[in-house]
Design goal:
By secondary structure, this protein is α/β, with parallel strands linked by helices. It has 3 domains: 2-161, Alpha/beta knot (3-Layer(aba) Sandwich); 168-196, no CATH class; 205-389, Hypothetical protein af1432 (Orthogonal Bundle), CATH 1.10.3210. It is built from 17 helices and 10 strands. It has helices spanning 29-41, 54-67, 79-85, 100-103, 124-129, 143-154, 205-215, 219-241, 245-248, 252-261, 274-284, 289-296, 305-308, 323-333, 343-352, 356-373, 377-380, and strands spanning 16-20, 46-49, 72-75, 89-99, 113-117, 132-135, 169-171, 180-182, 335-336, 339-340. The protein has a 6-stranded parallel sheet with strand order 3-2-1-5-4-6. Strands 7-8 form a two-stranded antiparallel ribbon. It has a two-stranded antiparallel ribbon with strand order 9-10. Strand 9 (335-336) and strand 10 (339-340) form a beta hairpin. It starts with 15 loop residues before the first strand and ends in a 12-residue tail after the last helix. Bound molecules: S-adenosylmethionine. S-adenosylmethionine is lined by residues 93-96, 117-119, 122, 135-137, 139-143, 146.
């Protein structure tokens, strides 16, 4: 997506998801659809809706398919769980909150943001779970208007200049009448943004960081990618010391780029589908196909086709095949929000979720890498070896 306008030189584009509370499929069909459409058009990455509504999901997905934006809709979401596990800032829009114009200056733009809107009476606990309760005026109006105004202030008007959302259709702004262009036939040529620039097929680390920022990854995502990069390079260097590097003939620039770009899809969504979004982005940027595969195959120790659909992924394999891909994939398994951690933490998480096959795959990948790289990975990741640093 291309962002233009007065603030287009600002690299950090906030990552926003919306939580819609109290959706009643019959009564709120139209209003919730409008909340979702506002979220999508005003650059949020996803909407979570508490009550299941497959019809609404279909409507919004169809719209995203036509007009683009890589927007995700999840209905039947456990709202409390989402709020409690949210690893970013929570903003609740309510007429009783602090004035938007004051709160907006304090809301961090470089962390994931969950914006909560209600329908009828919002439970009191939401006010406590939110980091910010924000009023768009203190008059009662609507979740649709409140969300639109909040996002406009958050993005400082940049959403008004957004174009090239990657859809099949694009509206051509005209003074009168309607003009829609089929982008499959005639692509508009963007004049700025990541997709108009020619990137090397395997960008160097500096370019990778720039690219992540240009496609809209948050600071937190970029920091995570840097931590995964350090983790991977520690393994590579240990392998070199172990005299195993030369015979393995690892492609170092490719590994570095893969470690840094694996989460490029998190510029669009933080759900598991970030690998799908990332693959689309990497292809559109004409990156080296081996790099595209690294982005595609980096979750857990990979996901085989027969598990993919149940996880919300397309019906295909997401399995790392080359040693370079496996290294990228597993480095990510050893880095969490608080820095590096031992394998057991990631494995335990999978076991807790009942994903036993995935846990076994991860252990197998760990052992395979130890064997092939000639290193003891556990010695490289003692707990607390790395703390998160904030980008300059
Ligand atoms: N009494 C409700 C409240 O807590 O704001 C109003 C319900 S209103 C029909 C539905 C939703 O619209 C609210 O949950 C809130 O998210 C949003 N809303 C309405 N007026 C608002 C305002 N002035 N500022 C922020 N959000 C508002």
């Amino acid at each position: 997506m291309i962002l233009g306008g007065p603030m287009s030189d600002v690299a950090v584009v906030p990552h926003v998801e919306v939580l819609r509370l109290g959706h009643r499929p019959l009564r709120d069909k139209r209003v919730t659809t409008h909340v979702a459409l506002v979220a999508r058009a005003f650059l949020a990455s996803a909407i979570h809706i508490d009550n299941a509504d497959p019809v609404l999901e279909g409507t919004i997905e169809k719209m995203s398919g036509s007009f683009g934006g890589g927007f995700e809709v999840h209905t039947g979401v456990k709202a409390r769980k989402l709020l409690e596990r949210w690893d970013g800032t929570i903003v609740h829009l309510t007429m009783y909150g602090r004035p938007l114009q004051d709160a907006i200056t304090e809301i961090p733009k470089d962390e994931k943001l969950l914006v909560v809107v209600g329908s009828e009476k919002v439970p009191a606990e939401i006010y406590d779970l939110a980091h910010f309760n924000v009023g768009v005026t203190n008059q009662p109006h609507s979740e649709v208007s409140a969300l639109a105004l909040f996002l406009d202030r958050l993005f400082e008007g940049r959403e008004l200049c957004a174009r090239d959302m990657g859809g099949m259709m694009e509206v051509v702004p005209t003074a009168r009448g309607k003009q829609v262009r089929n982008t499959g036939d005639v692509r508009s040529v963007p004049t700025n943004g990541p997709f108009s620039r020619k990137w090397p097929p395997v960008p160097d680390p500096r370019d990778c960081i720039e690219l992540l920022a240009e496609v809209g990854c948050s600071r937190a995502v970029i920091e995570h990618c840097r931590a995964v990069h350090r983790m991977g390079m520690v393994m590579v260097k240990a392998s070199m010391k172990a005299d195993r590097f030369e015979p393995l003939g690892l492609d170092l620039p490719l590994i570095e780029a893969g470690l840094l770009l694996h989460d490029i899809g998190r510029s669009r969504t933080h759900s598991i589908r970030h690998v799908v979004q990332g693959t689309v982005i990497a292809r559109r940027l004409s990156l080296d196909p081996r790099l595209v595969d690294m982005v595609h195959n980096h979750i857990g120790a990979g996901v085989p086709r027969h598990e993919a659909v149940a996880l919300g992924l397309p019906d295909e394999d997401f399995l790392p095949r080359t040693l370079e891909e496996k290294l990228v994939c597993h480095s990510d398994n050893l880095v969490g929000s608080k820095g590096r951690h031992p394998l057991k933490r990631s494995v335990e998480k999978l076991v807790e979720k009942g994903a036993l096959a995935a846990a076994e795959r991860m252990v197998a990948l760990h052992l395979e890498l130890e064997e092939r790289l000639g290193i003891d990975i556990d010695l490289l990741v003692p707990e607390g070896t790395e703390r998160r640093t904030i980008l300059p």
